[in-house]
## 1
Amino acid sequence: MKYVKQIRLIPTTLLCIVTGFIVLQFFNGTVEQKPVTGHMRNVPRQVELILERSCFNCHSNEQQLSFVDKIAPVSWIVNKDIKRAREVMNFSEWDKLSDAEQKGKFYAIYNMINVGKMPLPSYALTHPGSKLSPVDVATIKQYALSLSAKDSFIPAHHGPEQVKETSPTNTPVSPNGIRYNADFKNWKVIGMSTLIDNTVRVIYGNDIAVRAIEEESFHPWPDGSAVAKAVFKQTRKPNGDIVPGDFVNMQYMVKDGKTYTDTEGWGFAKFNGQELKPTGKTALFAQQSCISCHRQLAEPTGYLFNVPPKVNSKKLIEHYLKTVTK
Amino acid sequence: MKNILSMLLLSSLIFAACSKGAQLEDNGKIRFMFEPGKLQFISSSFNPDRQTMSALYGNREGLSLLEEPTNNQGQVSLKLVTYKMQEDPQYFGSKVNGELLRVEAVKSGKDGKLQYTTEYGEIPPHDSITQRIADILDTDPLKFPQ
């Protein structure tokens, strides 16, 4: 008798599920339709095919979604992913990026796929065709390297400094409220780097950030930590040294876990050129162009790149410090 | 029971201590940030042939000397800190400063002439002291928007 009652409930339950499913479709959104303004140019067809197959369904305005992708509640997740993906990188609006940005984005693409962060594992699971083979990854890497090979160094300045310095009348402020802070010159240099986009970078950390590195206490970084990265073009000297040339931009990361809740507690700011023009039209720029790489590639160091690597012999460094403090 | 609890507690403490130690250093390797004392960071450079990356620090007199080579007044103090250049473990295409190779110092002697010493490491092979001083003095300080 008990089982008969349960069996009678099955059709009712199924009816409820089907009804619920149908009702959900009334709340089904669609992906916002946007025009194609410009694709990548002068890219090998082989590279284009890989990107179209594995990336375009989210990072473009040219989705080719499957039937399942368009049905609620799956469509809700898909639409949200597409919206976010377009904010980070949009292959249909590639022409809106400067040459340097295009190159930077392409390195980011390689870094993401090289560590298996893209395509998103959950997406690749439901879209097996998007998976990248080792050959695909090698093809992308080869193209990224070719971008660097096309560059030429800027000849060294001779004689008086040729860079005309202008003075911004007011302190520039990023859309998220972070101000250009010239005090970074008094912070400690925590590292130096160079990128194949032909820039030289110097990274400064304030006292809180430096202490956090010394104490290996950056999971998470303490509030108040601040890091500034000065970016310059490369200049080659006759002796083969490559030195900072013209100023490109200043980048800041400021830790405030309560304020920057959408970007892992880090506030980002970038001030470009001699005018120190802030990057971004709204405070959302960090979600759109910064945190994605930091989140995926720098999680082990608290979402901050350029933490000094552990490569120095403790014994030798301690011996050196003893000799210089004598 | 009491013994078991004591052993568990002891094991936890040892494990916690080891974990902390492992975080600060891996196989005797540590992170290093040069402490310049009263010197200011002046500029950086890297050399793809030698696979090195350097940072130059100096005092006010040292900075003046770099800006105007005839301005050799006061107690000049410059330090060139050179590291091995290595791949950035977190980002393809980026190279960062790695292991410390040497710290060279150029300072005014009692006679006002510049003297060269190595505080750490050795002078690069095939380089003379004269060449090292010339290379250090041939540094242009970073130019930031004012």
## 2
Amino acid sequence: MRTTLSRGSIVLLAFAVFLALGAAPYAAVGQTSVQIKWLEWWVNEWGAANHAKLISDFEKANPSIKVIVVDTQYPNMAGKLNAAAAGGENYDVFGTEGSWLSGLNKLGYVEDLGPWLAKDKAFADSLTTVTPLRLNGKTLALALYLIPYQFAYNVDYFNKAQLKPPTNWNEFVQVEQRLRDKAAGKYGMSMPLSDGGFILTRYFGFRLAQEGGRLFDDNGKVVFNSPQGVAAVNWWKNFYSMGLVVPGSLGENQTQMLEFLASGQVNTVIDGPFIWSKAKQIDANIKLAYAPAWRAQTGGYFWGTSGVGMSAKSQNKDAAWKFIQYLYSRDASVGMTKAISLPWATKAAMDSLKGSSDPMLSQIPAFASQDPAHNLLEPVLPEANKLVDTLKIDFQDAVTGKKDPKAALDDAASVWQAELDKAK
Amino acid sequence: MKVAGTRNPAETIAPAESTPSRIRARRRLPGYAPGYAFIAPILVYLAATAVYPILNVVGMSLRDVTAGHWSFVGLANYRQVLHDLVFWNAMGNTTIFTVASTVAHLALGLVFALLLHEVWFSPGLRNITRGALILPWVFSTAAAGLMWSLLYHPFGLFNYLAVGVFGRPQPFAFLGDPRIALASVIAVNVWKSYPFYMVAILGELQAIPVDVFDAAKVDGAGGWQRFWYVTLPQLRGVLIAISTIDVITTFGHVDLINILTRGGPGRATETVAFHVYRTALLDGNLPQGAAISTIMLVLLTMFTWFYLRMLARRGAESW
């Protein structure tokens, strides 16, 4: 007896075939390799080729692990991570700023890397002392690279204008005054004061270190509202009033600063060494260099960092840890330091800077070594975004004359202290 | 007469051997049940995409989280929000942003609609003008934000004119000066959305019977009197409806603020909606973000209830 399939049965059969075909590749992968998801924003910053090489080298060394790269624009990273933490979406390894860690930790998203480091002493010893990013006794992430913030300049423009890079703060002001060209609409530099991170690291933090100030005392009390902190704010207030920076600083962001730099509207900047690789994305021919190490009351520098964390929800923690270890391996860290002019947070990478001919990297050992006692490191804070935002608003108010610098710093310090006390 | 190639439909309805006893009586659902059955799919959709998330957010606002563990804290988040000066600053910015945008939308939309409603000497020119006036509506918010951020740029067109042509010593910091940043953002919002008002009002104008105006002319009413006593009352319904929609959508604007200023300089352009985005997604403080969202929900619900009451009082049928 002939049996004919009903329409519904045909549809069901077609759907089942479709599902089987669609699932087959995943099934095949599942049988031969573990997949880990790597959420980051660095493809653009490091260059696609450098990033791709990093991944392919890891996969060659670990054929049973496949890395799924989830590249996200930096402005969207924090939101994406918080949404993932709230919604249960898993990214096995993720890039992170220190300021995001407290929020992610509250949501239970961050794996404590302390026990993982304890299991592998050789690996732990290969890292610098400031690589582990800790909050309340937990190692929430590892700093991927250490960023000193220093004056950088357009080498070709300076050669053409017969300008020498400034060797101290006074020469810095003189250079900026020479760069200001009202007729041509050129300014000395751009100061993105809309970014609290910029204010903490590149402006207030940098000058605070050079004034001999600190963010916290040895008991963890907030002390940036010290006379050294007030001196730092006053210095920037005086500089801002000279009209040497691009107008609209209070609303400017890093993207605009890069545009100004790459287009030649400004030819100097205070930033980390990655600024060169970022500027090259806009103008491939631009050549930047760091000025030699400066000294004011001290020779201290402010160091920032971005890090790498592991998800506490990861189903493949061993594979994720292997990937993290690879990122900090000697070959990867030294290679990436050279490729993108950014000192990786390993002892091998920092050692490789000595004798470097890179115009940015070659200056960094001096920043680290000329006055290590006065170097400041970007802290991992509870409610970090709120605290950095508070400092930003008070710094803006002080620099624009809306508030007295001492009063502004006192207000910011009281908010910081309240949050730190709450977190204890 | 049976036509070749056709079948009598009656022959296909029931089998040849059927008898009345084999035909089952159709069951009818009682009362309004058929109506509910028809709208059930959309109700399920609304429950999943609107009701559940709202209840989730309200529930989140009553809890706090530590190391991934959620616990009930009652109204603690609300107390924290209501004592936060940043929240009140955002409320102030939102009020200014919403009122200014809505009034400007209304004024511009009405003026352009009246202009287009007139008889032009050249219908072709009128059509071109209408197309040009609608153009801002076509832009996505991202495109509009990007375009205006370039116009507002220290080296953009506006400052080129201000500095290069009119000789101003310094460029305007449209998005970098706290005194004018909010006005700059409002200008972009007004430019982007006035066509919605214009199109809605123009449609209503064209629906007003000409006899009403003729009668007013016969009674000796001048142009302004006809506008005030005839046109405006006829437009009242549509004006209330679109301004209410505008208030609700403007209150929740995040995208334009995010593209143009990200709430800065300082907190000069931070609205309540952006404050929610920053608190919940950037700072990772979901419970507090949920509390602020719930406060917004209550305020907008009260406003919408007010609108429905106004319409009901006028005897108009609510949509």
